[in-house]
Amino acid sequence: MACTTSQTATTTATAARIGALILAGGQGQRMGGCNKGLQPLLGQPLVQHVAQALRPQVHSIAISANADLPAYQALGLPVWPDAPQWQGLGPLAGIASAAPQLPPDLDALLVVPCDTPLLPPQLAARLAQALFARPGLAAVSAATASGRHPSISLLRPALLLGLPQYLQAQQQGQGDLSLRRWLEPRGWQTVFFDDAQAFANLNDQQALQSLQQQLQSR
User: Fold this and answer.
1) Where is GTP bound in this sequence (predicted)?
2) Residue 10 in domain
3) pLDDT digits (tens, 9 = 90+) for 77-127
4) In total, how many domains does the chain have?
5) pTM metric for this prediction
């Protein structure tokens, strides 16, 4: 895999090379079957808002998507679909499929969903500060008063090496393929953020329209 960057105790948050993967490979069932990442907010696709929030924070950005690929590619970012053997297995499939294509010099990978357009400007820095403070720590996730947000996590590249085997085992046993279940036994901590709205998922058209009205009234 291309993501076998060596990790050392001397890696610091300020010097770390962080890549971002925007997860846009879902089926959008609660969005009426629409491709969630391409739904417009203030005239731009949701995924573009997410990319704009991340651009000042990370060294590279890519999108994990499985449909409407030309529309995603038009945004000027790498777009990586799920590998055939993992189609339909959710966010972990997107991460595992992207791992071999990541820049080889990354110190960490930030994964975020495509429907969180209000991500805070200090997201990557705060997660990196927590991750690199402990060399043995494998992952950190954002948390708010509403709980943990495993879909917004900073991962060490070494953690991704075992993901294909994990997916295969879970497939065979019809196990839990959630990000939370994967992270829980693997050295996982959280970083608390006060602004819960910054991490709100726009899961349906009603939530999307409500946010648009809020932003237009500012």
Assistant:
1) 23-25, 36, 82, 115
2) no
3) 999 999 999 988 999 999 999 999 999 999 999 999 999 999 999 999 999
4) 1
5) 0.91
